[in-house]
Amino acid sequence: MDKNVGSADKVVRIVVGVALIAFALFGPADIAWKWVGWIGVVPILTAVMGWCPAYSILGLRTCPMEKKSA
Asked: Which segments cross the bilayer (predicted)?
């Protein structure tokens, strides 16, 4: 499993994840779909692991390629 999530991408994922979880915890009580905020766990996990399964499927990567020695 090669890393495919770069530094800037990690920061964005963590910020979005924390914002979604904060919405789930502290959002208005009368909203029935607050559970959607718990989806914020996914971008945090992908940032911590440095690997995104969707990027693998789509062939994307935001991290620099590592040089392989011969």
From this structure: 12-29, 35-58
- Residue 69 forms part of a structural domain: no
pTM for the whole structure: 0.85
The answer to the question of residue 22 being in a domain is yes
On whether residue 1 sits in a domain, the answer given is no
The span from the CA of 48 to the CA of 64, in Å, is 17
Task: Give the residue with greater pLDDT, 38 vs 70.
Answer: 38
Query: For residue 24, what are the domain limits?
Result: 7-58
Q: Alpha helix locations (H) across the chain?
A: 7-26, 41-49, 53-58
In the numeric block, which tokens belong to residue 3?
């890393």
Residue-wise pLDDT for 19-50, tens only, equals 999 999 998 888 888 888 999 999 999 999 99
For the chain, what is the domain count? 1
